[in-house]
Write a structure and sequence with these properties.
alpha+beta, SH3 type barrels, 6-stranded antiparallel beta sheet, about 40% strand
Length: about 80
């Protein structure tokens, strides 16, 4: 099942499937790439940032950016 990165729950894992072309170089520089595993490590309330684990790195993303990244969630 695909969902927005911002819709994933704490501890949920998946694989990055869609990154809009206008954001691709920005998030690739942070280590987020197509077909790479990703996991939600925390979500801050009130539309705060989403923190994800990619490989050995933790990355904080703004909620608006996380809404544009689509992930295939592991069920």
């Amino acid at each position: 099942m695909e969902k927005k990165l911002s819709e994933m729950k704490f501890g949920e894992k998946g694989v990055v499937k869609i990154i809009p072309s206008d954001l691709r170089s920005h998030v690739t520089g942070m280590g987020i790439r197509l077909n790479k595993p990703i996991e939600i490590s925390s979500k801050q309330p009130m539309k705060g940032p989403v923190v994800v684990n990619v490989g050995n790195s933790s990355i904080s993303l703004g909620r608006k950016l996380a809404e544009k990244i689509i992930v295939e969630v592991n069920l």
